[in-house]
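Sanity check

After download, print the first record. It should look like this:
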Amino acid sequence: MSTSPTSLPPHYNHDAHEPASHSSQRAKQWISLPLRPWSVCLFITLGISLIIAIIVLLVLSLRRNGFVSVGSALSAYGATWRLSLLWTSLPSFVFTCLGLYWGAIASAASDRQPFVGLSRPDGGPAKETVLLDYRADTAPIKLWAAFRNGHWQVGSATLAGLVFSVLSPLAAGLFVATEALFQQEVPIMFNSTFDQAAMNSSMDVRVLLDAVTATLIYGASDRPWTDHEHAFRPFYTAFEVAGVPPPQNASSLTARTVAQSAYLNCAVLEPGPDYEITVRSQGSDPLSAALAMAGTDRGCRIRQEFTVSELQQVYFVTSGEFECSAAALYSRLVFTYGHFSATSPPLLANTSVVSCAVAYRSTNGDLRVTVPSSGSSGRTPDGATRGASGSGGGKPEILGFSPTEESRDSRDDALGFWRVFEGKLFRTEAFTADTTWSTTDFGTAILYRALQRQGGGARSTDNSTVLGGNVLAESIADVFTLIYLTGMATAGLVPQDGGRREDATATLEMQLTRLFVVPWVAGTVVALLGLILAVAGSVLQHAQKHKTLLYEEPAGLLAYAGLLEDSNLVDVAKRVRNSEGFDGQVVATVLKDSKKGPKGAEPGGDVVRDRWKMTRGIKPRIIVAETTTR
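Expected structure tokens:
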């Protein structure tokens, strides 16, 4: 081994063997505040708490359809603040603060690394001790240099700091507010039931026809507790009867109830195979004829007799046939349509004959309606009076009906009901001066509906509209079904025996804005944060195993001056500064000289080649641990 001309005197190279004084025994070695065990453990505790919180919120979010209900805005100091700023900025703010905390730990770990190398018994090379300063490097350069030098804890800590720069904006998407549907059971009551027998001969069909015309032709709303297919047994909620507001954000109510319905299976008959129109008698002043339409529809014989005259242009003959067999579905509603024509043999042209079989159904199912507001029904507190009559002011909107079992035939729920109901449809006839046809009130409603369905349609020789058989069949079904539903929802809805109530439960649905945890964001955040905590544990372990022999923070020039007292570095710096052509850059000159000539030939040639260490004791100094042999 050769000794550099600038080495310390011999007695300085043995400071490590100096006896410790009383004061040095009491002095504690210094460690940066962020690297102290309690500080790193606090960081790890905060990180674990965050991971647990995210996992718990994720589980709650998945199990409870969101973990908390939130509003859309918050008013404060006369201003409206969007609450979405809270659940986007708060997670980002938390991770930003935690990232700053980690930045302090990572900086402390990189700042102490040169002193860790100096504190080894045999010291360390200059590039890892006296020439090392990670503070002067940007994060990517520091990362590359740390792993190149084998300083894994510094490199990992730096990489974790870069990860935190990604975590903060990623955490802004951790929570998302979404509309969610919640359900709860609420008590309801039934105080009325359906009875077909109430739709008897005393029922005024004209009232039903007026209601049907208003709905189908003039766009009036449906009868309460009906849609275009069913009449539903009404029910009432406890809060509705009590006149108190429904739960906030309640959107719909679903309950098991009974639906009544009637369907027509109409066939447009073909002349010849299905029916014939014959002239029974004919007159000349005015030109007229007594006609008979006879035919067969799916096993049921049908017949109509009517008179046509040149005094009336459009005819729509309506009647019922109630002697069909059970196999032929008991009855037929028969309709003959045509225009008077003097040139046609039966004095009738543009003829259509429609025959309809009737089916009555009762279906149990789940009815979904809108939630009525408090006091909207106008009922008495027990809800009995108006609920029974079906004329209550409250009108929930029908949202949907889902059958829970097969519908059953309700034709004979009241014996002979269908004969009375269907027969009454053809018994009212009124003359209206502004119409061009002759028919019953039932037929008038059908023709208005058919004109509405067909629009302009074709024209006859007298410029009246010609209605097709298919349009008539569809219109007949529309009008008949709605007549039945309106009748069942009014006359057919009666109080239960003795005015008793039937209690049940319904499912109340509430539309709430709920805060959800985004699973993939939560998984990414938890995984990255877990890796960072593992790095924090390794940094803490390294800090405890590798001391620095420092008794104060090397902050400020005075602290460094104490470490450099009688140090070889002082002589090196002096020699470099006094060298010829010095350009003001000490470190750059030393690195440049290390590549030139033999050892000691250049002013800074010794620094890079030698190993450097720090003496032990209360007065640590940076000295040459070992020189390089040439």
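If your output differs, re-run the checksum step. Summary of this record's structure: Residues 1-28+557-630 form one domain.
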